[in-house]
Amino acid sequence: METYYYVVESIDGDYAHLRRTDIESDDLKLVARALLPAEIREGSQLKYEMLQYELIG
How many other CB atoms are there within 10 angstroms of residue 23's CB atom? Predict the structure, then answer.
């Protein structure tokens, strides 16, 4: 499985807008907060691997 890195650009209710940081991209991915670590904030860095998001910074 591949590993992807994201930063939380914004939080909108039950959803978070994530931007990939491991490639050059301006696209945002909309992800349900239920799938993300509970302690995320705007600016949090995440790693996505094996179908799970992990807070890394």
Answer: 8
